[in-house]
Every structure is written in structure tokens, then in C-alpha cells.
Design brief:
mainly alpha; 5 helices; elongated
Length: about 130
Amino acid sequence: MRRRRVTDGFREVADGLAARGTYDDQVASLERNVEASQRFLDLAQQRFQSGVDSYLNVLTAQTTLYSAQQTLVTARMARLTALVDLYRALGGGWIGHTGDAPPAAENIGSMAPHNDAPWDLLKSGAIRPR
């Protein structure tokens, strides 16, 4: 029973680390897609304003951009969820069960795996705790 728990723990950590790399690549790719979609919209608006294209092309470009943005938001949420799962697999929540003192905030920030980790989002004010 104990051996199974240990192997499950190692597997969860390995899966979390692999997912982190995969999500980082996916988010970077989707960010480039959003930038390209924004350029497509800008060009469609310029073409409409100059009388070359109909407004339907602008609407199509907006739909493409909004879809790309939604996909990016979904990927970012999945990435942050995977980070929370990795934190949990590494023993997150231990303090809540044992009553130990939490580590200093500066130590947590230095362990941040990416610039938009949950604690960075909290510090920047992008998200607020309940």
C-alpha cells in the first residue's frame, strides 16, 4: 500500500512537470495566433474603410480573433490548473493539515515557475482572493 502511494506520487509529479512544459508551449503558440488574428482584423478594418472589402470580412476577422482569444484563455486556465495540481502533488496543503508555519512570501515567489504563476497574478492585482 505504501509503495503504491509513493509510485503514484512520483507519477503525479512527473505528469505535472510534463504538462507544465506542454502548456507553456501551447500558450506561447496560441498567443502568436491571437496576435496574427488581431493583425488580420486590423487589415480587414483598413480594407473596409478604404472601400476595398465589405463589412462581412471585418465581422469574420472579429469572429476569428474572439475565437482565438477564447482558446488562449482556456489554455491559460488549463495551465494554471496543472500548476495547482503539480503543487498539490508536491505536497501542497500540508500546512493546512499540520498547522506548521507557511514559508516566507519571498521564498514562494522565488520558486515561481513562470511569470504568470498564481502568486504573481495575485501580487499584480490581476486576480483577487475571495
